[in-house]
Design goal:
The protein is α/β, with parallel strands linked by helices. The protein has one domain: 3-Layer(aba) Sandwich (Rossmann fold). It has helices spanning 38-53, 62-72, 74-85, 92-105, 122-130, 147-159, 169-193, 207-225; strands at 2-6, 13-19, 26-32, 57-61, 112-116, 138-144, 197-202. Strands 4-5-3-6-7 form a 5-stranded parallel β-sheet, sandwiched between helices. A hairpin with a 6-residue loop joins strand 1 (2-6) and strand 2 (13-19). Helix 1 packs across helix 8 (207-225) and helix 2 (62-72) packs across helix 3 (74-85).
Length: 251
């Protein structure tokens, strides 16, 4: 697959083509409600493959990118921070160019690409498919957790920030409910309109255990596609917990 370069204009694509091989690496799409643990899982997956095998994992994290732009772009912060703080998502006219810029200009060295936080609606799913991120080489894992679990994690994360932060329950609920409302249509879109493997997994428990479950999903995909990893004879990954897949939902 080819990769387009991006001009200095934010999100604008030009016609220059450079090699891209998303059909020869695994793509892990992480989905789930606010504070469910997507960022933690992403970091644990990266650390595991780096420490255990010396393998590179590329990451596209839209939440991290939004926070970075709030710190570095005063105009962006002035216009969009009140929207995010109120619990509303950024519109696709902002999110899709932002995602494209991260994808086209980001690192392209890893055997695994983790997409953390982009697939918030069906239009974003379709767009990711057009970029080659929803093919047979991809896994879309939705982390399932209760409102209480997610809120507890949000409070814990905020309390550990420098100076401590307070979680606004109203904006949290708005984000959580928006995710729940969109979940079924996103799942249907992934299953019906892409070739990505879709998995629901229980994320109410210890996030270290959930990380092991996600690693096992990646390992199964590597084995099924018979992907040869550099300088590795055997990839040893954690076994999947019986409680990882509620109701045996595995498509």
């Amino acid at each position: 697959m080819a990769k387009k370069d991006v001009s200095p204009v934010f999100g604008e694509q030009n016609a220059v083509m450079t090699p891209k091989a998303d059909d020869t690496r695994i793509v892990l799409n992480l989905l789930g409600a606010t504070s469910v643990g997507k960022g933690y899982i992403q970091k644990q997956v990266c650390l595991y493959f780096k420490i255990a095998y010396g393998l590179i994992v590329d990451v596209i994290g839209t939440g991290d990118e939004i926070r970075k732009r709030f710190l570095t772009d005063p105009d962006f912060k002035e216009e969009w921070e009140p929207v995010v703080s109120s619990g509303d998502p950024l519109p696709d006219r902002i999110m899709i160019p932002m995602f494209d810029k991260m994808y086209y200009e980001g690192p392209n060295n890893g055997f695994l690409l983790v997409n953390d936080g982009f697939l918030r609606n069906t239009d974003q799913v379709i767009h990711a498919g057009e970029l080659g991120l929803m093919g047979e080489n991809s896994i879309s894992v939705r982390l399932l957790a209760s409102r209480k679990t997610c809120l507890d994690r949000a409070i814990h994360r905020a309390a550990n920030k420098i100076g401590g932060l307070r979680v606004d329950a109203e904006s949290f609920d708005k984000r959580f409910e928006a995710d729940q409302k969109a979940a079924d249509s996103i799942r249907a879109c992934i299953i019906q309109k892409t070739k990505s493997q879709f998995i629901h997994t229980n994320a109410n428990g210890n996030l270290g255990d959930v990380s092991c479950d996600v690693l096992s999903f990646v390992g199964c995909k590597i084995a099924n596609l018979k992907i040869q990893l550099p300088n590795i004879k055997e990839l040893k990954l954690p076994l999947l917990r019986p409680s990882a897949i509620p109701d045996a939902i595995l498509v």
